[in-house]
Amino acid sequence: MVKEVKTTCPYCGVGCGVIATVEGDGTVAVKGDPEHPANFGRLCSKGSALAETIGLDGRVLFPEVLGQRTGWDVALDLVARKFSDAIAEHGPDSVAFYVSGQLLTEDYYVANKLMKGFIGSANIDTNSRLCMSSSVAGHRRAFGADTVPGVYEDLELADVVILTGSNLAWCHPVLYQRIAAAKTARPAMRIVVIDPRRTMTCDIADLHLAIRPDGDVALFMGLLGHLAVSPTIDRDYIDAHTQGFPEAFAKASALSFTEIMERTGLPAMQLRKFFRLFETNEKVVTCYSQGVNQSSSGTDKVNAIINCHLATGRIGRLGMGPFSLTGQPNAMGGREVGGLANMLAAHMAIENPEDRDRVQRFWASPTMAEKAGLKAVDMFKAVADGRIKALWIMATNPVVSMPDADAVEAAIKACPFVVVSDILRDTDTARHAHVLLPSLGWGEKDGTVTNSERRISRQRGFLAFPGEARADWWQMAEVGRRMGFSGFDYASPAEIFAEHAVLSAFENSGSRDFDIGAYAHIDDAGYRTLAPFQWPQPAATGSCVTRFFAEGGFYTPDRKARFIPIEASSADRTSENYPLTLNTGRIRDHWHTMTRTGKSPRLSSHIAEPFAEIHPRDAMDLGIRGAGLVELESPHGKVIVRALVTERQALGSVFVPMHWNDQFAAKARVDALVAPVTDPHSGQPASKNVAIALRPFEAA
Ligand code: SF4
C-alpha cells in the first residue's frame, strides 16, 4: 500500500513543504508540496535528497550508559538523579540544556518549561544563538518584540531586493529561486548583493558590493545619512510612529563619505549607485542572514538596516521592509516558546516580573528563573570552569559547531555528567556522553516548525520508530516526572502544542503580537490535519495578520518604534601574526555538521571535501598552489584543508565551509579557529571575521 504524507523539510529556515511517499516495500520518495505557501512545489538539492538520508546507518537505537546498552528506565532515572543531585548540592544554575533549531516547537516548549519553570534556572540555550540571535536582539530593540514584519511574497513584489550577508542561492535556495523567477518575469527588478565574496547569489545581482568584513554598519549608517536629506524621508511616519530619529541621524551624519568608503572598502561610484537605488525605489526589501548576524556588531547591523526602513516608512507594506532570514528549520519556533537563555515563553520577557508571574501561574510551577541564563558561548565557558555539573545536549554537535571548538570539546570531556540526545551514536559530541539517548529523526518525529515568515507547518512522521528511539519531548517530560515535577503528563505532541497555544493567549500575553489562541482546543485529529498557517491567529478573531507596522503599532510601551543610534566601530582584527580574515559559512549541498547530508553520495559529489578559498594574489604571495594542502592557524587552533584559488574571494580574506568534522576529514573543524568573541547585545559569535595565518602545509 502506498502512503503519502505532507511534511516539512528539516533543513533551512525557508520551511518548504514536502510530500513523502512510502511504497509498500518501504521505499521513500520525496517531492515538493505544490500547495505549501513557502515553496509551491519547489525543492532544492538538499530537500530533494531527503530520502537518501533516512537509513539506519550509524543510528543510536537504544539508551546507553557509558557506552553500554541499557533500558529507558535505567537511563532516565540516572539522568533525573544526577540533575537533582547537582541542583541539591550546587543550586539550579549548576545544570544546563544546550538544544537546537532542529528541535520541533513541542520539544523546545517542554525543555524550556522544565528548565525555567521547574528547575528554576534559565540555563537553556540553543545553537540558534549561532544563527539569528542578533536579529532577535535587533527586533526587540527597534520593535519592542521579536517580530518579522514581512512575508516571502514581499521578495517577489519588491522593485529592489537587497541581500546583505546572505548567500541565498546556496543557503536559502528556494527563496533564491522565487526571487530569480520574479526577476525573469519583471526584468526591471533590481537585486543588490552585499557580500565580501562573489557568491553564486551574484549571478542574479545587478550590483555586487564586495564590502569589507563587518562594513555593513557603516554602509547603512551612510545610507541613513543620505536618505535623511533626500525627499525620500518620510517625516509623517517618523513623527507618528517612531522615537529617536534625531539621535540616530546625528550619529549617521557624523560619518563622512570618505569614512564610509574606508570602512566599507567600496568605491564612491558603487556607494552612490546603492544609495540612489534605495532612494528612488519605494518597494525595497532588505534581507539579512548570517553575514549580518554572526558578528560582534551583529545587532547594530540589524538596527542600522531597520533604521533605514523606519526613516522611509517602508515597513510592513507590500514589497517592502527589513527581512531577517533564519538559518535553521525551527529557529523561529524556538523563539516563540522562549527556548533561549534570555527569553521566557510566548514572547514574554524573563526580566519582566509580571510576565514571570503570569507564566508561573499558568504552569503552576514551584519556582521560576528570575534572570537570563547563560548564552551558548558563556554556557560552555561555565562547563569548562566547572560551574556546570550536569549538561544535556540535544540534536546538535557543539564539538564541531561552537567557536573555539577544541576548548568546547575539552570542556565537555571534563564535565562530570553529560547527556546527549541524538539520532547518531558516533558524532564528535555523542562520543563524550555519559548517557546517550536515542532520538527520532526526520520522517519519524511529529510536531511543528516555524519558518522565517512566521509560518507554522507540521513535520509528520511516516516511518516506524527505529529500535527504542523516542521523541525528545518525551525524554524531557519523563525526566521532569522522575525529578518529582507535575505538569509533564503529555500523551502526544498535540497536547503540548495546545498548551503552548493557550499560554500564548493567557491573560493577554499575546498582546506582544504572538497569539495562536485559535488553536488552543486543537485535538489529535485537528493536529494531524493542521495546514500551514502564520501567526498571530488569536482566538478572538481567528484571522492572521500578515504584515506588521505599516501603521505603527509597535510593541514598545508607547507603541512607537525606536531608532537606534549606532557607533561605527572598527572591524579589522588582523595583526602581524594573523594577517588574513577568515569567513566561515555553508555550501550548497551540505547541512551543518553533515550528520545527515553526509549520508548522500549525490550531495557529497557537489563538493567532495573541505577547502580554503583564497584570492590568486594571496596564493602567489604565500606560495600556495591550487588544490595544494594549506594550514590555517588562529590563536585557538589549526585546520588543514585544500586550497581553492579563485578571484571570487576578496584579497586578504579566506573562506572555509563549516560542515566538515573529524568523521569526514582530518583537522577540518573550522570552528576550532573561531575566537569566542560575541556581540554584546545578542551573545552571537563573530564567525565571519576571524584573524588567521595561512601557509602551505608541509607533512612532517
Ligand atoms: Fe529544505 Fe531549505 Fe531547500 Fe527548502 S530551501 S528544500 S527548506 S533546504
From TrEMBL:
GO terms for molecular function: 4 iron, 4 sulfur cluster binding; metal ion binding; molybdopterin cofactor binding; oxidoreductase activity. Belongs to the prokaryotic molybdopterin-containing oxidoreductase family. NasA/NapA/NarB subfamily. The lineage of its organism: Bacteria, Pseudomonadati, Pseudomonadota, Alphaproteobacteria, Hyphomicrobiales. This is Nitrate reductase. One of its GO terms (biological process) is nitrate assimilation. Residues 2-58 form the 4Fe-4S Mo/W bis-MGD-type domain. Keywords: 4Fe-4S, Iron, Iron-sulfur, Metal-binding, Molybdenum, Nitrate assimilation, Oxidoreductase. The chain holds residues 1 to 700 of 884 of the full protein. GO terms for cellular component: membrane; oxidoreductase complex.
